Amino acid sequence: MKAMERWQSDRMQQPISLARWGHYGTPVLVFPTAGGDAEEIERNNLVAACWELVDSGQVKLYSCDSVAGRALASNAGSPAYRMWLLNQYHQAVVNEVVPAIFADLGGQQRLIVTAGASIGAFNAVALLCRHPELFAAAIGMSGTYRLQRFLEGQYSDDLYFSSPMDFLPGVEGPQLDTLRQRRVILASGEGAWEDIGESWAMADALGRKGVPNRVDSWGPEFEHDWSTWWRMLPQYLGEVC
C-alpha cells in the first residue's frame, strides 16, 4: 500500500511531500539523495529491495522530499540561504514530517529509524543526533557528512546546528544521555565515487561522545550507486527493526 500527502511548509516557505509504503511495522524515514523527491526511493527500486520487510509488517517506509539537498546540489540562492534552508528542513522534519508519521501510525507508538544515502545519510545521522528523543537509530549509506563544498567556503550558525560533525562536541546533558542509548550504522563501499573516509570521520565524532556506532566497509566492488544501497538497506533494517 502506497499513499502520498503534500503541504505547504511555513518553515521552509515551500511545499514538501511525504510518501509511505506498507501497513504497519517499525517506522523508517528514508531521506532521498541530494535533490531527490519523496518518491525517489521507489523509482530507483529501493522500496522493492526492502519489500519483504514491508510486506511482512516488519517495517513501514516513509520518505520526504530532499528540499535542502536540492538547493545544495543546484547552488540555489546564496550560501547563507542554503545553510538557512538546511536548518529549516530539519525543523520541518521534526515539527511537520514526524507528527504526520505519528498521525499515520495512530500515535507515537515507537521511535522512528532514519536512513539515507549520500546527503540522505547526512540528514539521517543529523536528525538522530539533534533529536534522539524521536529517533531510535540511523543507517547512513555512502554518507557525505561534510557539506562545505556545497557552500563556497561559507559558514553560519545554521550550518553549525545542522551538521553533527560541528555540533556534536558541544552536546551534553539529557540530549547526550539519550543519544548514548541510540545506535548509528555507517556503511560505505570503496568503489567508484565512494569516500569511506567520510564515514570514519563521522564515526570519530560520534565515538568521542560515547555514541554507539560502527563503520562497515563493503569493499571496492561496491560503488556509490543504487545497486549498493539495494544490498545495504534491507540488511541493516533487518538488524535494527
In short:
With 241 residues, the chain is an alpha/beta fold.
Unreliable residue runs = none
Q: Can you give the mean pLDDT? A: 97
- Give the CATH H-level superfamily: Alpha/Beta hydrolase fold, catalytic domain
Radius of gyration: 16 Å
Largest sheet: 8 strands, mixed
- The level-1 CATH class: Alpha Beta
Please supply descriptive tags for the structure shown above.
Rossmann fold, single chain, 44% helix, 241 residues, 22% strand, 11 helices
List the helices and strands and how they pair.
Blueprint lengths: L1 E8 L4 E8 L4 E6 L8 H4 L2 H4 L1 H5 L3 E6 L2 H8 L4 H27 L6 E6 L1 H12 L4 E7 L15 H6 L1 H4 L5 H7 L3 E6 L7 H13 L4 E5 L8 H15 L1
Parallel strand pairs: 3-4, 3-5, 5-6, 6-7, 7-8
Antiparallel strand pairs: 1-2, 2-4
Describe this structure in words.
The protein is of the alpha/beta class and 241 residues long. The chain has one domain (2-240): 3-Layer(aba) Sandwich (Rossmann fold), CATH 3.40.50. Helices cover 44% and strands 22% of the residues. It contains eleven helices and eight strands. The chain has an eight-stranded mixed beta sheet with strand order 1-2-4-3-5-6-7-8, sandwiched between helices. It is globular. The two termini are 20 Å apart.
